[in-house]
């Protein structure tokens, strides 16, 4: 269960042991609206094959002063909701961000399908490198063309496309509740 939480929590946008990390406070500048997680791929296998038990809520993304991004969402694993709020710090390289003092690096790649982006992340967790990618879009409906583009991009980066997980979409999930 802990591994599953880490794969999705970390993989869904830079969550490294959420409770122990400081929160970066910055003034919010521009609301980018609601985004939906369409697919996730990772280079580590989830023990027990429990990928189907994961559901996510829409993400709220805001651009902060200085070009940083604040992302908030919740996800549900095995009937427990987990809340996530992370600030991605803009780097000098366009489209590349870091979190938690550079421990997590994410590159934002524009998909070939309008309204979709791929978030490709690399982190070091207890001496093990974990690579993840997420397909996100502005429309809650599934898009086969976007999924095929995601498979092409992630496959070219050496990720096994057989590990793609398509989480269930939920409208609400309250951490500590339902």
Automatic annotation (TrEMBL):
Keywords on record: Secreted, Signal
Domain (Lipocalin/cytosolic fatty-acid binding): residue spans on this chain: 33-171
GO molecular function terms attached to this record: small molecule binding
GO cellular-component term (any): extracellular space
Signal peptide: 1-20
Matching InterPro entries: Calycin (IPR012674), Lipocalin (IPR002345), Lipocln_cytosolic_FA-bd_dom (IPR000566), von_Ebner_gland (IPR002450)
Location of this chain's protein in the cell: Secreted
CDD domains xref list: lipocalin_1_3_4_13-like
Chief subcellular location: secreted
Family listed: Belongs to the calycin superfamily. Lipocalin family.
PANTHER family recorded: LIPOCALIN, LIPOCALIN 1-LIKE PROTEIN 1-RELATED
Protein name (Swiss-Prot/TrEMBL): von Ebner gland protein 1-like
Species of origin: Dipodomys ordii
Lineage: Eukaryota, Metazoa, Chordata, Craniata, Vertebrata
Gene name tied to this protein: LOC105989370
